[in-house]
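U., I forgot to send this yesterday:
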Amino acid sequence: MEQTQEKGNSVISDKLVFIDEEFSTKNEVIEFIVNQAEKSGYISDFKDFYASVQKREEEVPTAIGYQIAIPHGKSEAVNHPFIAFIRTKDEFQWSADNEEMVRLVFLIGVPQESPGKLHLKFISQLSKKLLDDEFRENLLSQNDKTKVFEQLSSIEI
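Result:
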């Protein structure tokens, strides 16, 4: 894995930003992102982390409206906290029991023994930014992956 700078936004990596991917189910999206996180060295065990994200989804689906879902997991398999982002080409229904349509997915991974409520801090900071209509619209319309990464890096985490 490349050296990760120890500054606030090091949890967001350009290796974990994807735009206009063709997925149509929550499981496809989560599986893809977890696989990429493992390839990039953010996690050490695909099955363990994937299971922690799915367990959380079973408790309460993480679609929050505005075409956004924020699945997350805490696991010993997480080597370094991260936020991955994927924009799907088309919106899709997040889960059978939740009719929310989603295109913007932020998957958060934190180590099991992370300080305090690190994942809640990430979700809070992300949610504040996503309430901004212009910020959301840019994520939906921007076609340059580098610009999307720069926009996400502006979130203070």
